[in-house]
């Protein structure tokens, strides 16, 4: 259970970065969007791998 906390936080941070960048008027290749997608993918990947174990 505790191993799911960090990946879940990474997913939430990714979503927050994307939303904040879009609200601020960032484009599709803004650094906030890129980092948000990367955080989201890393967190989701870690969650997926943890549940398969």
Description:
The protein is an all-alpha fold. It has one domain (2-52). Helices cover 77% and strands 0% of the residues. It has helices spanning 5-23, 31-52. Helix 1 packs antiparallel against helix 2 (31-52). It is elongated, with a radius of gyration of 12 Å. It starts with a helix and ends with a helix. The mean pLDDT is 92.
What is the molecular shape?
A: elongated
Q: How many structural domains?
A: 1
Helical content class: over 70%
SSE series: HH
What's the tally of helices? Answer: 2
Total beta strand runs: 0
Could you give the distance between the termini? 12 Å
How much of the residues is beta strand, in percent? under 5%
Task: Provide a brief overview of the structure.
The chain is mainly alpha-helical and 53 residues long.
Topology (elements, then pairings):
Layout: H1 5-23, H2 31-52
Core attributes:
53 residues; mainly alpha; elongated; 77% helix
